[in-house]
Amino acid sequence: MDCNSLTRCTEIVDHITTGTLDISHILSRLLSSQNISEAGLGRKISVPRATINGLASGRTTDPRASTLQSIANYFKISVDQLLGTKPLHTDSEKNIVTIEELSIPIIEWDQLHDWRNHIEKIKPSSHLNWISMDPSAGKCHFGLTVKGDAMWPQFQENTTLLINCEKDPKNRDFVIVKIHENSNVIFRQLILERDYKLLKPINSMFPSARIEEGDHIIGTVIQARNNL
Amino acid sequence: MFFSLCTRFLNHLKNLYGHFWNRSDGLKEYYLKLDGYYFCQKKRLLFVILKVRYKRTVDIIEIQDLLTYKNYINELHPIDAYIIGILAHLDIHNLANEKHLPIYNAHFKEHSCFIRSEALLQIYKRYKDSKGDGITVLRSRHTKKELKIPTNELCNNSDLIYTLDPWQAISLGYEASESTIKHNVL
């Protein structure tokens, strides 16, 4: 990397977590993340609920310094962070995502027809493809690597999908479906219309299809992981 | 005589197609820019206008066709690619029309400079948290550190989008649009 690029990199890294959110967004996010209501916060820091509401809704544009300081102290952040002039997460340790040791097998598309039996037979010593995931992300049964470009560019080829087979798919979820007619297994977005379910690709070159009787939704995508 | 003709021809190309080479300070800029977009009521298609930077040369392309021109996308600023991702996603869901086209003003685009630089971050993970909000984990190409950020916050941060490569920026545009649609539908 040349000198100019390095300079540019430094500039970008300096800006890297500088959000463009204002105090109302930040305060709403903090309230939500701490699971505390506006009234609850007001009681804790002895500030009227209306004042907190004014800030959270964006109606109050020039809050008093003492109010800001009280809110910042409560959430253990600086006033600059509350105002959005500094990134909310300055603690670099917070930004490092630690991955717990939960390994999920990555299986092949042709193994999906009988994935339960296949996974039961998998032994750590015999299976080569595993992916680590954070257990808090939810239950996951297996991983699957995207082939083809039906879901391109949102899901590029070789993206690893983590699939939960017990989750009820909702409207606009991304699902893995076994088509009864030709026994193909496809990855599509599920669109629920009034009386029917539609499987929609992202790439407009591919056709949409309706879920017919006998088609089976194998699982729902809970996480997409790019292979870097 | 021959030399003069060659020079004139090269100048003509340069005036038409812009700079193919580095700037005087050694930096290179993104060659193309997204100049605009519109919904054609007659053809019922969404078109984007691409312009050669600093030149008058423009190309008007249907948005789904543009996605197949990989060379064009590679020459676009990640912010432009991000906007194209949003538009393309709206288009495939038949939500892009004259009434509902989102407007991205110059302010959003002016925030980042147009110097082409190596992508510093990559989208590593995408998932939904317990509340159903999209979370994106970005990973640094060089330090392998990770940055976990709500997808909607990432979409408001043009500096972060600038650190992605154009294809990942398009993917993020799809994600942002999907999130908006889902929010409105559910």
The total count of strands of chain B amounts to: 6
Rg of chain B to the nearest angstrom? Answer: 19 Å
What is the averaged pLDDT score of chain B? Answer: 83
Q: Rg of chain A to the nearest angstrom?
A: 24 Å
Terminal-residue CA separation of chain A: 20 Å
Strand order of the largest sheet of chain A: 2-1-3-4-9-5-6-7-8
Quote the average pLDDT of chain A.
79
Q: What gap, in angstroms, lies between the N and C termini of chain B? A: 70 Å
Biggest sheet of chain A, in brief?
9 strands, mixed
Query: Spans of chain B of 5+ residues with little confidence (pLDDT < 50)?
Result: none
What pair of chains forms the biggest interface?
A-B, 41 and 51 residues
DSSP helical segment count of chain A: 8
Q: What is the chain-wise order of helices and strands of chain A?
A: HHHHHHHEHEEEEEEEE
User: What is CATH's topology name of the largest domain in chain A?
Assistant: Umud Fragment, subunit A
CATH superfamily of the largest domain in chain A: Umud Fragment, subunit A
Main pleated-sheet profile of chain B: 3 strands, antiparallel
Q: Considering DSSP H and I runs of 4 or more, what fraction of the residues of chain A is helical?
A: 25-40%
Describe this protein's structure.
- The complex is a heterodimer of chains A (228) and B (186).
- Chain A contains eight helices and nine strands.
- Chain A is α+β, with helices and mostly antiparallel strands.
- Chain A has a nine-stranded mixed β-sheet, with no helix packed on it.
- The longest helix of chain A has 13 residues.
- Chain B has 186 residues and is of the alpha+beta class.
- Chain B has one domain.
- Chain B has eight helices and six strands, in the order αβββααααβββααα.
- In chain B, the strands form two sheets. In chain B, strands 1-2-3 form a three-stranded antiparallel β-sheet. Chain B has a three-stranded antiparallel β-sheet with strand order 4-5-6.
- Chain B is flat.
- The N and C termini of chain B lie far apart (70 Å).
- At the A-B interface, α1 and β9 of A face α4, β4, β6, α7 and α8 of B.
